[in-house]
Amino acid sequence: MKQAHASIVARFHASALLVCALSASGLADTTFQPAGTLGQWFDPANWSNGLPGPATNTFVGDSKIAVVKGDTAYGGSLAVGYQDGKDGTIEIADTLGSKLSANLNLGAAKNSTGLINMTGGTFDGASVTSIGILGKGVFRQLKGTASHNVLYVGAGKNAGEGEGVYEMNGGWCFVKSAFIGNNSKARVDQKGGLFVVSGTSFKIRSAQGAAYNLSDGLLSVDPDAEIGAVQSGDFLQTGGSAIFNKNVYNGGYLSDGVVAGTGKGSFTISTGAASTKITGTLYNLEKATITIRNKSTVTVGLVDNSRGGTMIVDGAFKNVDGSKTKILNGGTGKITIENEFQRIGVCSIDGDFTQTNGVLAMHVAGFGADQFCVLRGTGNAVLGGSLWVDFLENTNIQLFKPIKIIDFAGGSVTGDFQSVILPTLQDGRSWEIRRGADYFAIEVVPAPAPLGCLAAGLFVATRRRRA
User: Mean pLDDT across the chain, nearest whole number?
Assistant: First the structure.
């Protein structure tokens, strides 16, 4: 796939090379001639060599074309924005039966913009759709149905080449394999409609910045999803629904059965609803970050944070099809429970939590309801690694007020943290750890002696009491 993509992109390194390469293919060439005005695709007088056909190299630059006839417009291999400094636009109108079928290249030349604007009709990407090769490419879908065999959003061969944008406000988009980024700056903005990836690849990664932003509509991904991998990539969901039918690798990928990667992946869910489902495992690699905020709910089988990633959680993890959700923290991984604004958050798990190493971090602002962070679950918690708790400003400290910061009512809490770091208290007070069969709590009690007071930053030596 990479070799195929490289051979396609290499043909568009300059507008002259593009024309030569396509002409050398043995296909007929035709160029849309009216400059700067809106002309009709189906008018033969608008083309240098007659109407394009299925076996035609078609060029659009410094022009606007309307595809409005209820018929199929063939572009063969279609380059829009193929001349340096000149932009090309194709309008696919809301007309019954209007259809454009082509191997599409948008923004094929430097300092050019190639735009497809769909207000209806159908686009059939017969082989490869490349958006942003040397210039800027924009595919804007307001309505209608678009099909892409292989979709490259950001298709530069070398670092810094091209910029690709896919704007989806409605309609249906069906893709077999999607590559967002490559070596270009790239983003997909889905604000409505249905976006389906049904083939072998869904990858968001580029050193120049690559992102998928979902604010409305439905995203459905059948293959494994790679976010960041060895570069950087962002997935941000603020609305709509997302369904990942296999695994999500945040900051990594799967190679020969081994999970690897050092990319700066970012996977953020901020919907305030239960609108994200991952049937398989959500992997968080060492330089990656998972953020669940705004009391959002993620339905997932397993969250694996055992490779050094960072998680920031104020939300819930729900089980898939009645099976327990499992959250695993280990290695140098860190899970911080906090709200985006007030910093007091809750992590609810419809299942189990296991920390073999790494850090679990929380905040305390007081001893009343909603004044301290809580890790809550319905299954079993196994503790290990480190626990860090800090005070927020103006924290109200009271004696003999246990705080259940880990609460698995009806389940169990076993194991022990290897280290517990708690805030410094005033003289005459110390911390006590209280353990029950299904909870872990901290409590402020009178210090047995002045020497029992805790020093800032030291490992916490506490009294432990089991209820």
Answer: 89
Task: Collect contacts of 229-232 with beta carbons under 8 A, ≥24 apart.
Answer: 229/203, 229/205, 229/253, 229/261, 229/263, 229/265, 230/205, 230/261, 230/262, 230/263, 231/181, 231/205, 231/206, 231/207, 231/263, 231/264, 232/205, 232/206, 232/207, 232/263, 232/264, 232/265, 232/266
Contacts of 278 (CB under 8 A, 6+ apart): 244, 247, 248, 298, 299, 300, 301, 320
Q: What is the pLDDT of residues 20-43, one digit of tens each?
A: 444 445 569 999 988 877 899 999
Cα separation of 88 and 124, whole Å?
A: 19
- Torsion of Cα atoms, 434 then 435 then 436 then 442, to 10°: 40
How many C-beta neighbours within 10 Å does residue 240 have? 20
Considering only CA atoms, give the Rg of the chain.
Answer: 28
How far CA 137 is from CA of 122, 225, 465, in Å, comes to 19, 24, 64
8 Å CB contact between 169 and 192: yes
pLDDT in tens, 90-105: 999 877 678 999 999 9
In the chain, what is the straight-line distance between the N-terminal and C-terminal CA atoms, in Å? 61
In terms of pLDDT, which residue wins out, 93 or 454? 93
Place of tokens 């309801």: 369
Q: Which residues have a Cβ under 8 Å from the Cβ of 252 and sit 6 or more positions away? A: 226, 228, 229, 259, 260, 261, 262, 263, 265, 283, 285, 288, 307
CB 344 within 8 A of CB 317: no
367 within 8 A of 401, measured Cβ to Cβ: yes
What lies within 8 Å, CB to CB, of 369 at 6+ separation is none
User: Which residues lie closer than 8 Å to 24 by C-beta, 6 or more apart?
Assistant: none
136-157: b (≥16 Cβ within 10 Å) or e: bbbbbbbbbbbbbbbbbbbbbb
